[in-house]
Write a structure and sequence with these properties.
Layout: H1 2-20, H2 33-42, H3 48-61, H4 65-70, H5 73-80, H6 86-103, H7 112-115, H8 123-134, H9 143-151, H10 161-171, H11 177-190
Length: 210
């Protein structure tokens, strides 16, 4: 009975997300695979909109991995200054470019274990990149996905990021993981916001803890 109730709830949530956000897309701008990797890394503790403003300048000024590798750290810092932790992120950008050029012949590896050894790159970033670029079945959990999952009783308050990822992967169909991730990000960003969520208009508010 409990399993049936959960299945129905997950189906209700999925149907609502499909109605509300039928064609979800990554809101980070990129033209090359490594640009997405860097953009997702830069998005920590800031907004995609601000990252897009910064990377528009960054990738125009330094058009190749070699350019980024050889860029003076101080110049990278100046470009990344609008972001939080810009000094640390400038080093990450430099070292990511250096690793791809020096260790992988200028081609970004698509192996999770390798990518997670890159500076500033964690599990969530790799999941986004593999899902977005190669349609790998991944379910990245960021702050929006975590908040929405807990509010909709898809995860417990005490669950960590990895716990939430495992639960979401069990609840949703594997072929839907990439789409559901993006839908939950956008739902959390524009509807189920951290502050002043739009509860009155929400059609699944009966499920929500708020």
């Amino acid at each position: 009975m409990i399993g049936l109730m959960m299945m129905n709830k997950v189906e209700i949530i999925g149907n609502y997300l499909d109605e509300l956000i039928p064609n979800p897309r990554c809101e980070l701008n990129y033209a090359k695979d490594y640009e997405l990797l860097i953009a997702v890394m830069l998005s920590a503790q800031t907004t995609d909109k601000r990252v897009n403003q910064v990377t528009k300048v960054l990738f125009k000024e330094y058009e190749t991995l070699n350019d980024l590798k050889n860029a003076p750290i101080q110049e990278l810092e100046m470009i990344l200054r609008p972001l939080g932790s810009f000094r640390k992120k400038a080093l990450y950008v430099h070292n990511i470019a250096k690793m791809i050029v020096d260790d992988y012949q200028g081609k970004m590896p698509i192996d999770r274990k390798i990518l997670e050894t890159f500076p500033g790159i964690g599990r969530k970033t790799v999941s986004v990149v593999l899902s977005e670029l190669y349609n790998y079945p991944e379910f990245a959990v960021d702050t929006h996905v975590e908040r929405v999952s807990k509010r909709l009783h898809l995860a417990k308050e005490e669950d960590n990021i990895l716990d939430i990822e495992k639960k979401l992967k069990r609840k949703f169909k594997k072929e839907e993981w990439g789409k559901r991730h993006k839908q939950m990000v956008l739902f959390g960003r524009y509807y189920c916001k951290a502050m002043k969520p739009e509860c009155e208009e929400c059609l699944i508010k009966e499920i929500c803890k708020k």
